[in-house]
Amino acid sequence: MAITQFKEGDSLEPTTEMYEEAAGWIMRLRESAEEADLEGFRGWLAGQPARHFALAEMEALSEGVRAPAAAELAADRRRSALRRRWSVAALAASLVLALTGIAQREALTVALLADDTAPAGQQHRVRLADGTLVTLNSGAALDERFSRARRDVTLMRGEAFFDVAKNKARPFVIGAGDARVTVVGTHFNVKIDREQTVVTVEGGIVRLGAQRGGKEIRLTAGQQGFVEGGRVQAQPNFDALAVSAWRRGQMVFYTARLDEVVAELNRYRSGHIYVANRAYAGETISGVFGTKDTDDVIRTLEKQTGLRSLDLPGGMVVLY
């Protein structure tokens, strides 16, 4: 058995997405353990120490609910295929309840630290002390730290559009995930998308770098760049209309992976959606949807992928 090597500087704190992915892998490997699944699982674990901790925690939680679920279903005399499907659903539901507790803990931390937040399903506009206008997308959170020398803000979660007031003497600096964005006066979009932070400029000039320092790139109107794992890179091919769609109340997907679509949907819901069967995570979805019609999107996902949905209290949904 291979021993995982942890390097200095590696983050050992799992993210909500890592917990979700761990739960998905547990479900998938319980259903089947083919070599392709095992290879994918090993690849998921590789190079991310925090994923090991997420897996261990979710495994412990799943063992606590597996026996009761199996005992209850063993007494049911329905066909074996249907029994198996509902066994998956029962375990998925229990894991989702555990994930919800983790998500609520993170949400409380953000709520305590943020100066401004946007409620689920709504946009929120904030006028900062310097005159900068920030439009927060659903679920986004912003923290402000202005001084005489600089205007510092942190996008703690989600997505926002910044229309920065010009002031050459006081640079406007945004921390967002692994990224650092520095401007004087411009307007642009910043999105924290799981482990990646994407910046799209509509006007003016932006310097994009990593929080830990190093290389910076210069972005002008009509350009996009991203930071992931400390790597800074320009993104030459993107759809500007899709980037700004949220400000028009829309979500636009072009052959997007199912797990990416679900992550986007979760920005607009108070009760999250979870994909229990990771075998479907790579299924592709295309379409234009309204941000206020997430239940309709769930029905579309069922039709396009063949997955079923299980509704739980609090608006939570399991796709399995």
TrEMBL record:
Keywords for the protein's UniProt record, in alphabetical order: Membrane, Transmembrane, Transmembrane helix
Molecular function GO terms recorded: sigma factor antagonist activity
Domain FecR protein as annotated: residue spans: 119-207
Listed InterPro entries: FecR, Ferrdict_sens_TM
Stretches that traverse the bilayer: 86-103
Keyword Transmembrane: yes
PANTHER family: PERIPLASMIC SIGNAL SENSOR AND SIGMA FACTOR ACTIVATOR FECR-RELATED (PTHR30273), PROTEIN FECR (PTHR30273:SF2)
Record-given protein name: FecR domain-containing protein
